[in-house]
Amino acid sequence: MLRNYITIAWRNLVRNKTFSGINILGLALGLACSLLIGLWIQDELSVGRQHPNSDNLYRVYQRLNQNGTVSAGEGTPGMLATELKQQFPEVVYAASFSWEEPHIVTINNKIEKQTIRYVGADWFRLYGIPVLAGSSASALDVPNSVAISRKVAETYFGDAQAAINQPIRFDNNTDYQVTAVYEDLPANAEARYDFLLSWSQFMTQKDWAKEWGNSPVQTRIQLRADTDPVAFEAKIKSQLKKHNVGNSASFDVQLFLYPERDAYLYSNFENGYPNGGRIDYVQLFGIVAIFVLLIACINFMNLATARSAKRAREVGVRKVVGAKRGALIGQFIGEALLLTFLGLALAIGLAALVLPAFNQLTNKQIILPASNPIFWAMLLGLGLVVGVIAGSYPALFLSSLSPVRVLRNSLRFGAGAQVFRQGLVIVQFALSMLLIVGTVVVYRQLNYMQTKNLGYERENLLYVMAEGELVPKYETFKQELLRMLGIQSVARMQSPLLGFANMSTFGISWPGKDPNSNPNFMIQSGGYDLIKTLKMSVKGRDFSPTFGTDSSNYIINETAAKIIGYSDPLGKPLTQWDRPGTIIGVVNDFHYGSLHKPIEPLVIRLGKLYPYETILIRTQPGQTKTALASLENVYQKFNPKIPFSYQFADSEYQKLYKSEMIIGTLANVFAGLAILIASLGLFGLAAFMAEQRTKEIGVRKVLGASVTSVVTLLSKDFLKLVLIAIVLATPLAWYAAQQWLQNFEYRIELAWWMFGLAGLVAVVIALLTVSFQSVKAALMNPVKSLRTE
């Protein structure tokens, strides 16, 4: 019996090649999309959870309450990790972790630009990173020590053991000794690094990191397994007040713990508490995967039902000769499973084919876990579920047909069956409408962020790092550049324009300041011609060498001016870290971070140029190529041994929204595939309707109906279904779009035309899909249509 069922299923599949091909392709596209999204979700969920001690790892965050405004962040004082480990026995390991810094690295006479991190001595034990050579306990205990990854060791020294005690020169002036080689970090690590330097070196080089009022680094700890994190958090909550930070009625600073396993996915904070993050995208694409798979299943049902009239007589004959309904259901479910597993096999091939491009787009290294039996068990389960769901309605419907009615050619499909099929089409296009609206909204928001006025002109603005001889000879470098073709102005700044959102201090004071208020200010140092080079509007003036007192003066932004409260800030006193000075300029608020966050108060001082700070260069409009050639010539004159590199301000700005760009691209792809699959389903239903109304169309043509009138007759029914889908989906789409936009402090307003455009696209696609079958039916010879079988 089973062999007979398989034979019948295969013959039906081969006999109806077009129908089978469309069905298998639709299922394969839906399954391939769901498979890729599932692998991406699995990779996202694993970040921060792959560490051996992940259940006991925590990041120490600060929660700030300033005059009732609450915020939170991972920036902490540079000495906090050491203090927590010394004072609290619950802390097994503690380590500070710096943000990335670019450096010139010389290894075996090979000069390259690399990024480095400074970490505490407990780092390897904290995260369970295998150390292949050297000691994990003492590798970073001494100054001028460096730990490198396996990749670096094998590239430059041959193997891990050979790298130990070898010298590496940083910035062409300081030799470091390799004290450890650690295993390469996994592909799904949140932060990747190949060079780690000791924390004592960081504290020696950066005196400002020793100020308890500054929060320039991250602090990570591991608690004992028997420690209650809630009780421990209560113990360290007021730790910074011991150092006179946040010790006032209107300003409060509290430390709190954030689990390492949640930090990646739940990175956004609102009013000082977690409020989503990348988990929103994980949930979003999980829903998209379900939508696409559901559309594929509905497509299968519609196509199977469209062919049901062809199978009705077969069902009648088999029932007459004694076939039971259960056997018929098993037969049709079996055929559905056969199609499903063929689609699943094709889906795996499609996924493997596009996976390299998918990885490049998402910046991941996902692989198909072909050697994992759990993966295959899940695929088997998915195939069974999809096959049963997709084949359930056709199986139940066909097995319920009366043999008498079928064999007497009196088969009519009831209103219930028709409503069900129409409902499937409405669901398909409602889901498609949601995806189309999402695509339009994401595109508009990304376009808004890319074109928004940031408060300075980022076009024709680029920067290079202050490295090598550019640091001691900056003024000479600047004057030579200004004499070159294509160069308009040059200035310097402590950090890239979009890179100092975590550089802040509570150490700002002024006469009349509320002693109970201690707001947090972003801080930055700059040089002469800074405002001129950025082309920002300013009340007052820029830093200038003609004013000898500017070394102790300040420029602030509008937000800082409002907090300070001077009616006219120009010429008024201001103190940073017991360094009194005068406000000489107030610049318009400009964005130095993501549009996800509001602009915060900023204080800029005239400071000394340190290695790896930023040199800003504004080029003449239309002369970028000439300016770059001039810049490279002058740069190589000062640094002949250092590779020349530069960054454009606008391209660096776009990197802030890399996640959103990826989401936008994926949304376009998945929305397009969902519409394609939905169109296949509509194609199937159009074929079914045309087949059911063959004789009606023949009669109408005999009575003089035109092709246009017949096409209109068949198309209007489907247009009604699509319009109903649009009406049902619009409020859901508006709500979903509004929720997503809440992630941005600066965002677009939803407009009616976005939903109108999405609806128009759905209508046009539906009409184009239906028109093929409608025109085909309208052109059919009425003699053939009315012929009695």
Automatic annotation (TrEMBL):
Tell me which Pfam families the record gives: FtsX (PF02687), MacB_PCD (PF12704)
| Residues covered by the ABC3 transporter permease C-terminal domain | 287-403, 668-782
- InterPro entries in the cross-refs: ABC3_permease_C, MacB_PCD, Macrolide_Exporter_MacB
Q: Where in the cell is it found?
A: Cell membrane
Q: How does it sit in the membrane?
A: Multi-pass membrane protein
Primary subcellular site in the record, as a coarse category: membrane
Q: Source organism's superkingdom?
A: Bacteria
Is Membrane included in the keywords of this UniProt record? yes
Q: Where are the transmembrane segments?
A: 21-41, 284-306, 327-354, 374-398, 419-443, 669-690, 718-738, 750-770
MacB-like periplasmic core domain span: 20-238
UniProt keywords, alphabetically? Cell membrane, Membrane, Transmembrane, Transmembrane helix
Please state what the protein is called: ABC transporter permease
What organism is listed for this UniProt entry?
Spirosoma soli
